User: Which sequence fits this backbone?
């Protein structure tokens, strides 16, 4: 069965600089959040391996195998530098 | 208590919120914007937050500190936006009956914030060069 999930990906810091946008809508098909990242990494040329960042979905940290659902808001957290 | 602000941090106000007659110790930490990093001259910092997740994570860190150390009160405020040299970027305060847990909890809060809070800093150097910091 093919599942289509239109999700919003929001970008901060390094990733916003690379993509040139703060958000984009993605039609993710049969995707986990990891599959989505690997696809976006290829499209935009992100330099961060998936192991070096943390995924979040709907304003919570989540696991990489989290399945995407329509309307999800996804953010990939690159190494932070607050403080 | 955890908060993110685009305005100047007011440590006296934050400190007053921790007042507790059971406490004999208050440890405060202020993080300031300095004018250098790894040998380069820094002219200013821009902090960007993923606000919703940062509020959730910051509150989790404060609650974890209160569970892990013998303290009564803990608070943190992180500033975002454009900051100048000398501006306060972060304030942490911990109140406890005795001093040692307050020192330890304040260090724990700062260390954990620097490790996991979704806030990023961009340094501005001379000649308009800018760079996002990683840790």
Assistant:
């Amino acid at each position: 069965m093919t599942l289509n999930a239109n999700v919003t990906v929001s970008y901060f810091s390094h990733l916003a600089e690379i993509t040139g946008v703060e958000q984009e809508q993605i039609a993710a098909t049969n995707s986990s959040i990891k599959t989505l990242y690997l696809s976006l990494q290829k499209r935009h040329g992100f330099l961060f391996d998936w192991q070096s960042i943390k995924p979040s979905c709907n304003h919570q940290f989540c696991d990489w195998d989290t399945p995407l659902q329509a309307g999800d808001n996804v953010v990939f957290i690159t190494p932070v530098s607050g403080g | 208590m955890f908060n993110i602000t685009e305005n100047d941090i007011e440590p006296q106000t934050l400190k007053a919120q921790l007042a507790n007659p059971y406490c004999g110790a208050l440890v405060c930490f202020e993080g300031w914007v300095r004018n250098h990093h790894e040998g380069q001259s820094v002219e200013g910092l821009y902090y960007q937050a993923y606000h919703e997740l940062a509020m959730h994570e910051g509150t989790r860190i404060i609650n974890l500190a209160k569970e892990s150390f013998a303290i009564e009160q803990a608070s943190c405020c992180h500033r975002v936006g454009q900051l100048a040299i000398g501006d306060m970027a972060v304030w942490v305060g911990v109140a406890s009956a005795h001093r040692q847990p307050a020192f330890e909890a304040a260090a724990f809060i700062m260390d954990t914030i620097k490790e996991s809070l979704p806030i990023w800093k961009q340094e501005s150097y001379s000649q308009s060069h800018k760079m996002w910091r990683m840790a």
